[in-house]
């Protein structure tokens, strides 16, 4: 049995999240309306697909940085094509590969500061930030990306989402 370390939540699981979103976007690329997807949204007052992908990658990259005690990168919201979104996922995957898991595992109870909107900041322990703020945000925006593309007619199934999370761990009987 493996232990549940902070790095598992900062690095290992986010790698699976990136792969899941990659799977979803790869299917979307094959759709005849693919060029319109970056601006697609579930409802008029909700953010589009481009924002959902940005938010997944931004939260993962901020999680890595904050868990290592470094300044988070500023990721531009310039994801105007599915290709740009996949490039951002590649950038995020590379950041995950470079993460210092030993350092991350030593910083569980360190305090991190995060922005909560214009002129508002908050502080949390690293573990509470990752489990109670970063990961829920990442999963929410991953699910919104999936839902937007389903609404747009992309033939996605549950396994397109889940296969990245179960690969190498699930034994079919």
UniProtKB/TrEMBL annotation:
Q: Which domain of life is it from?
A: Eukaryota
Supply the InterPro entries for this chain.
Answer: DinB/YfiT-like, DUF1993
What name is this protein filed under? DUF1993 domain-containing protein
